Amino acid sequence: MSTAMNFGTKSFKPRPPDKGSFPLDHFGECKSFKEKFMKCLRDNSFDNSKCRLQSKDYLECRMDNQLMTKEPMEKLGFKDLMDPPPSQADRDAKP
Description:
This protein is an all-alpha fold. Helix content is about 35%, strand content about 0%. It has a domain at about 30-70. This is Cytochrome c oxidase assembly protein COX19.
């Protein structure tokens, strides 16, 4: 008795990526940011923790040019590199 493989019993349902697609930068809109990031990595023995500012700039460029889904930078792990909101004392001190 042989059992035939029946591939039709399970249906595969593809789903889109969670963060959307990441199109290639065909027009080189973010090439300079990518190059700065890659140079930083090479200069720092590929220790990406030393290139976080360049990484942030590159991701911001990609989001600004609709090359990736817009996300708050804090959600992408850059909370410590963001400018703090102005405090009430700062607002009161300005004329």
